[in-house]
From TrEMBL:
InterPro entries: Formyl_transf_N, Formyl_transf_N_sf, GART. Pathway: Purine metabolism; IMP biosynthesis via de novo pathway; N(2)-formyl-N(1)-(5-phospho-D-ribosyl)glycinamide from N(1)-(5-phospho-D-ribosyl)glycinamide (10-formyl THF route): step 1/1. (6R)-10-formyltetrahydrofolate binds at R67, M92, R93, L94, I95, N109. It comes from Lysobacter hankyongensis. It comes from the Bacteria. The keyword Manganese does not apply. It catalyses: N(1)-(5-phospho-beta-D-ribosyl)glycinamide + (6R)-10-formyltetrahydrofolate = N(2)-formyl-N(1)-(5-phospho-beta-D-ribosyl)glycinamide + (6S)-5,6,7,8-tetrahydrofolate + H(+). Catalyzes the transfer of a formyl group from 10-formyltetrahydrofolate to 5-phospho-ribosyl-glycinamide (GAR), producing 5-phospho-ribosyl-N-formylglycinamide (FGAR) and tetrahydrofolate. This is Phosphoribosylglycinamide formyltransferase. N(1)-(5-phospho-beta-D-ribosyl)glycinamide binds at G14, T15, N16. SUPFAM superfamilies: Formyltransferase. Its EC number is 2.1.2.2. Residues 6-184 form the Formyl transferase N-terminal domain.
Length: 219
């Protein structure tokens, strides 16, 4: 049986991509990355993919007349890779609803906040401005609503006195990696399924997001 195939979408440094690469190499994740796709031809994530021997594909939105035209070409490339799951790991573009709707239950996104709080950009600044005592990251199913799909799993960190955006971002980034790896692992093992607009764990509906524990496992 072929290994569970992942297509990773990224726009920046690719640290979460690297976490997946390392987990697969260390036999902690029973999957393979079929390709990495980006809207930024020069981003570091693509070089991480090449260094790991993974196909790296880029398209520039500037080459297309509209967001919809870009997304149609971009996701045609993604589909051609034959992935079981599409993982948005630092992919910074809004995806056209038609492309999301065409792939129900096959796309997840890592977002740096405890959704539904602090959607969109600058989440660490939003958390500090709001006086939040707790912050973190969420993995959610992708829908046409910005950061609005059902939340699958979360990891939490405290907001400390004296935190600035950089300090808080670093603390969140450290838990993003195991959160993403563990979520993908459950999907790859077919223990976690996204279907009918809901999330199912071991065949039962998930009534609240899974939480990452100190042992770096989801429960």
């Amino acid at each position: 049986m072929a290994a569970f195939g992942i297509a990773v979408l990224a726009s920046g440094a690719g640290t979460n991509l690297q976490a997946l690469i390392d987990a697969i190499a260390g036999d902690a994740l029973p999957a393979r990355i079929v390709a990495v796709f980006s809207d930024k031809p020069n981003c570091a994530a693509l070089q991480r993919a090449r260094d790991a021997g993974i196909p790296a594909v880029a398209r520039s939105p500037k080459d297309f007349a509209s967001r919809e035209a870009f997304d149609a070409a971009f996701f045609a490339d993604v589909d051609a890779a034959g992935a079981d799951l599409i993982v948005c790991a630092g992919y910074m573009r809004l995806i056209a609803a038609a492309e999301v709707d065409a792939r129900p239950g096959r796309m997840i996104n890592l977002h740096p906040s405890l959704l539904p709080a602090f959607k969109g950009l600058h989440t660490h600044r939003q958390a500090l401005d709001a006086g939040a005592r707790e912050h973190g990251a969420s993995v959610h199913a992708v829908t046409a609503d910005l950061d609005g799909g059902p939340v699958i799993a979360q990891a939490r960190v405290p907001v400390l006195v004296g935190d600035d955006e950089a300090a808080l971002a670093a603390r969140v980034r450290a838990i993003e990696h195991p959160l993403l790896v563990e979520t993908v692992r459950l999907l790859a093992e077919d223990r976690l399924r996204l279907r009918d607009g809901g999330i199912f764990l071991n065949g039962a509906p998930l009534t609240a997001p899974l939480q990452l524990g100190a042992n770096r496992r989801l429960a």
